[in-house]
From TrEMBL:
This is GntR family transcriptional regulator. It comes from Microbacterium sediminicola. The keyword Membrane does not apply. Signal peptide: none annotated. PANTHER family: GLUCONATE OPERON TRANSCRIPTIONAL REPRESSOR, TRANSCRIPTIONAL REGULATOR, GNTR FAMILY. It holds the Pfam family FCD. Residues 1-20 are annotated as: Disordered. Keywords: DNA-binding, Transcription, Transcription regulation. Residues 14-81 form the HTH gntR-type domain. SMART domains: FCD, HTH_GNTR.
């Protein structure tokens, strides 16, 4: 029989790894670590009050997510995502997010529909007020809720990884002149189709929205 104390210690270590992984991931996505910046284990250990082993495990997780890369004899650094790669990621997201939108339209409850309406209205208000940070936050919330409502676990896991890799480019697009006024109605169309239980319309609206993102990214190359 396994030692209960050993089992609890293992669970605590796993929870610690997950927490440090999330904190380093957030720091990368929020621009606290720049592309190609070295991630020194000793510095990260001090910053996040974690053991070197925990930091090393966290970096391995982030390597598997595509946010960090390891170089021979140089340790780890933040991986830079090119515009071309970001376009490829969006092209893959088209299929996955369209699927989630269709599934969400099939499964959405009345309570979830009310929540989506509120997100839609808040997004419209944020754009009208020129609050692009809040609009960007609501955009991420909408995407997350649609994935959750869809109930498609595999697509959700893949999308989380893809969105993390292209987060910097997404943030740049959110502040591109006039982009918010174009994308807000597109988001509203997705939400309205999901609320109406119209899978075809939800899929089409999602596809149109993401194809617009790919087009804008191409213009940035």
């Amino acid at each position: 029989m396994a030692d209960p104390a050993t089992h609890l210690a293992s669970e605590a270590e796993t929870a610690g790894d997950t927490d440090v992984t999330s904190r380093i991931r957030d720091a990368i996505l929020q621009g606290e670590f720049a592309p190609h910046q070295r991630l020194i284990e000793a510095d990260l250990s001090e910053r996040f009050l974690a053991s070197r082993a925990t930091v090393r495990s966290a970096l391995m997780h982030l390597v598997s997510e595509g946010l960090v890369e390891r170089l021979p004899n140089k340790g780890a650094r933040v991986r830079s995502i090119s515009v071309d790669e970001a376009i490829e990621i969006v092209e893959v997201r088209v299929g996955l997010e369209s699927l989630c939108a269709r599934k969400a339209a099939e499964r959405v409850t009345d309570a979830e529909a009310d929540e989506l309406r509120q997100i839609r209205d808040d997004m419209t208000q944020a754009v009208a007020q020129g609050n692009l940070l809040e609009y960007s936050r609501l955009n991420q919330l909408m995407d997350a809720r649609l994935r959750q409502i869809s109930g498609h676990a595999t697509a959700s896991v893949l999308l989380e990884r893809l969105r993390a890799q292209s987060a910097r480019h997404q943030f740049r697009l959110a502040f591109h002149p006039g982009r918010a006024t174009e994308s807000a109605p597109e988001h509203a169309a997705i939400i309205d189709a999901v609320i109406a239980h119209d899978g075809d319309a939800a899929e089409a609206a999602t596809r149109q929205h993401l194809c617009g993102i790919a087009t804008l990214l191409r213009a940035m190359t």
